Fold this sequence. Notes:
The protein has helices spanning 3-23, 28-40, 45-56, 62-70, 72-92, 98-102, 106-113, 124-145, 150-158. The protein folds into 2 domains: 9-70, no CATH class; 73-163, no CATH class. By secondary structure, the protein is an all-alpha fold. The protein is extended and about 70 Å long. The chain has 9 helices and no strands.
Amino acid sequence: MDKEIKQIGEALASYAKDSAEFSAQRGLTEQLFPYIYQASRRMSTRAISSYLQEAHKVKLSAVTIGKALRNADKYWLAQYEEVEPAARVFGEAHNMSADEVLGLEENVFQALCSQPPILGMATEEQGHRNLERYEESKAVLQDVWFAFDEDTRGTCLDSIPEEHDEGEEGKKET
């Protein structure tokens, strides 16, 4: 191998290592979007970008943040698709649809959490699996859905196209 090419390669590898923080953050906009939305009601995109960089060493440009806010539907859909399976499992245990669960006020959700779930089971083992699925779903809803304020959750639900509602077959690809 040519010595100069080796130096170029080493420099490239070093640069990639130093820049890995940025590359490793692919998909970060999607994960942070509900928080970005909440913050955008009181902060500019530039202020959000500066805060993320200064406080958390997260590189999201104001342009990227602004673009995400202008094209919010795809981020809301991703958020919905993350929590909908958990809402379906939780809802089945409380005789509700997933959308009814996602539309609950947080205090009503918490009250349901304190009630025993209705878990169909054929065997004891199946009952344990159902209870485990229920508990996992409850945790997802608490950590991922009810972590946001009511306005944010409502905006997400209002952004979901009808073809993504429960029971519909033809889900549109995004």
